[in-house]
Amino acid sequence: MEILKNLMHFIDVKYLFETYNTWALVIIFFIIFAESGLFFGFFLPGDSLLFTAGFIASQGLINIWVLAIICFVAAITGDSIGYTFGKKFGRRLFNKDDSFFFHKDHINKAEKFYEKYGKKTIIFARFVPIVRTFAPIVAGIGNMEYKTFLIYNVIGGFMWAVGITVAGYFLGKIIPDVDKYLLPIIMIIVAISVLPSVWHIWNEYKASKKHKHESA
Q: Does 2 or 99 have the greater pLDDT score?
């Protein structure tokens, strides 16, 4: 019975956030930070995490203002780290062999996006998976002035991190008795947003395996 009780606690979203509130915020910060500017964070589900966190905050499990600030800071600092990395080491990425977590196609995709939208890429890319991770790196490689980058970074970071989080918060507020359906709703949101990333990683893995087989 004790094992069953612990298992129920583990799948009880309300219990988890009430008990591990601080750790939940730390994990949310790291994921948003990593997806915003660390090239290996491209597969992380930033959109769904922001929306889900806002949704959970609507039930009083997380303070929405603390959550919004943490997500905003994570998005801004993540992009700034990505920019700095691109400025100092970015060109070396073009000589780096493809691996499970890195493909030059990601850089090329971000560069094409940058060519199309210019400096506004830093704003628009926030809403495009994969591109949002590599856009700040490309901005650094292209020697965009940091002051200009920071302005677009702050605007885009606010629209994405705060905007999506608050959207999830208000959705949770308008659904009657949402606490009764909290877990299945969260699972649906996460599944919808994670599946494309999983599918992309799987395709990249198969392509890499096929390439090695053909080269052998």
A: 99
Structure tokens at 177: 């008795």
Say what percent of the chain tops pLDDT 70.
65
CA atoms within 13 Å, Cβ hemisphere of 206: 6
Tell me the whole-structure pTM to 2 decimals.
0.75
Q: Where are the domains of the chain?
A: 2-215
Q: Which of 7, 208, 9, 18 is nearest to 103 (CA)?
A: 208
Q: What is the DSSP letter of 143?
A: T
In the structure, how many helices (H) and strands (E) does the chain have? 11, 0
> How many Å apart are CA 156 and CA 120, to the nearest integer?
9
Residue-wise pLDDT tens digits, 31-45: 899 888 787 777 677
Spatial separation of the C-alpha atoms in residues 133 and 79, rounded to whole Å: 8
Alpha helices in the chain (DSSP H): 2-11, 13-19, 21-37, 46-57, 64-89, 104-117, 121-124, 131-141, 146-157, 163-174, 182-215
Mean pLDDT over 193-201 rounds to: 58
Structure tokens at 32: 């948003």
Show Cβ contacts of residue 47 under 8 Å, excluding neighbours closer than 6 positions. Answer: 127, 129, 164, 193
Cβ(55)–Cβ(168) below 8 Å: yes
